[in-house]
Amino acid sequence: MNRTLPSALGLAVAMFALLGAKAAAESKPNVLFIALDDLNDWIGCMGGHPQTVTPNLDRLASEGVLFTNAHCPAPACNPSRISIFSGRSPHTTGIYTNAQKLRDVLPDVTLLPKHFSNHGYWSGGSGKMLHYIIDPVSWDDYFPAKSTDMPIPETKYPDERPLSLPVGGPWQYVETDWGPLDVSDEAFGGDYTVSEWVGDKLSRKSEKPFFLACGIYRPHEPWFVPAKYFEKFPLESIQLPPGYKEGDLDDVSEEAKKLAKNRYFPHILEHDQWKQGVQSYLASIHFADAMLGRVLDALENGPNKDNTIVVLWSDHGWHLGEKEHWQKYTAWRACTRVPLMVKVPAGVSEALPDGTPAGASCDAPVSLVGLYPTLTELCGLPEGDKVDGRSVVPLLKEPSTTLDPVALTFLHDGGSVGVSGSEWRYIRYSGGAEELYHTPEDPYEWNNLASDPEHQDQLERLRAFIPDSFTERAVVKVKDLPALEWKACTEADKLPASKPDGGKMRLAFVNRRDATVKLHWVNPEGVPVEMGEIGAGKHREIEGRPGTTWAVSKKDGGFLGYFEVLDRAAKGVIR
């Protein structure tokens, strides 16, 4: 019996299948996936601030579809970015905060770049795409190197800091500072280096279709950029945020006021740095826009121009005094509404054969959690497992239509939600307080209508979109808490006194010594107060406050060292 023919046939079939799969992969469109960090609507095409300078963002918007009512899944980097890259909502994953770790909570999730590489793509990236991690298993290549698991290249900062805003206390985030630097773009590094690496990839023809991610870090704090980006914003001309209104919190709950009134805005006002902060944010946006321009130019002038889908987004917005708030973390529109732009060339996607209409605007509410299924549909890939978001391809076809009635944004506590509709916005806090705003008449959300009998029908309608259940917030493992600096000290009278300044937070003390030790709180008078023992190889968790000092001694006496607590939950490793 001749067994050669069937074997040869099988080999031929396999080769044809392989060639067919290769041809199918080569016909797929490329994806350029661009993120800007902490960018609100202060760009020209969205009209958020009259002085902003963003020619390249405006240029991209003019070439594709601009979504004017796009909202982040969460008003913080980590949960928002994990939702975008997994296609899963915070209320189903239980990831609501920056402190939680992707692989602790979702050890087996297939992120967007890995899903693409699993289906014939080369996936690479540079800069911040996830929250200060690269997640090496998800990428074929990365800059900085995957082995570092740190996505942000070396960046030039002032030799002495703070430069502009004095540190108000241990509660203050160390990067809340700003000002011009006398350096070139190239010497500044950071986003310039990212644009250089991404631009180089775009200038070459790839053997495979690519999923290429570009994470531009600005306008994330600190707002230090080369001085030339400050020149268009003379300090004496700076206009304060148009969304600011004195007394804006008078009609909201105590629950909302507590969220709004962090200590940053009063501290900035006290040091007369409000205009300088606005100036530096605008300069940082202008710099980020210029880095974007380098990337778009590389695409335009390279071999991939006509077969590359471009998607640009920001992970969440930013308050610069609106609602008496500075930073992010809120459910107000200033924080949830973000730029989203999509450009699809004609003839590259079977799902959108005519491509996106140039300069189109879509006012329908959309959530960034839908980017995962949008890209898989545009590229003809399987949607992926457990994806919560809905593809916005129907809106790319017909930007004047509506896909979903609302977009949801989930706050840190795993129960508070912002609901963004076409004309109405609703906020429900975990304690039960509510807010209701009519966006066309009140874009800055100055007038809370939740108690107005005339609008109870809208209130009832929007309440119905709140999920029936929320996955419980996953607890951060002790090993993943940021580490406090261990400072050796053997003399009790040299231990620094505690200066408590801020709310309670989680602290863990890990004893890596081979003997039991004692933990002491150093009170404001500088006196160590014994708080109990920690066995060899054990750890102990307590509630502490920023500015407190915790000392460690041997069980039989004699101090070893101490930790000084900063602005966030942390661990102290006793060595």
Overview of this protein structure:
The protein has helices spanning 4-26, 55-63, 77-86, 90-93, 102-105, 112-117, 185-188, 191-202, 254-260, 264-270, 274-301, 333-336, 371-378, 393-397, 456-463; strands at 30-36, 65-71, 122-127, 141-143, 178-181, 210-216, 223-226, 308-314, 319-320, 326-327, 337-343, 360-362, 366-367, 407-410, 417-420, 424-428, 434-438, 487-488, 505-511, 517-522, 528-534, 539-544, 549-554, 559-564, 570-574. The protein is α/β, with parallel strands linked by helices and 575 residues long. It has two domains: 29-401, Alkaline Phosphatase, subunit A; 478-574, von Hippel-Lindau disease tumour suppressor,  beta domain (Immunoglobulin-like). Strands 1, 2, 3, 4, 6, 8, 11, 12 and 13 form a nine-stranded mixed beta sheet that branches. Strands 18-24-23-20-21 form a five-stranded antiparallel beta sheet, with no helix packed on it. A four-stranded antiparallel beta sheet has the order 14-15-16-17, covered by helices on one side. α2 packs across α11 (274-301) and α8 (191-202) runs parallel beside α11 (274-301). The longest helix is centred in the middle third of the chain and has 28 residues, at 274-301. The chain starts with a helix and ends with a strand.
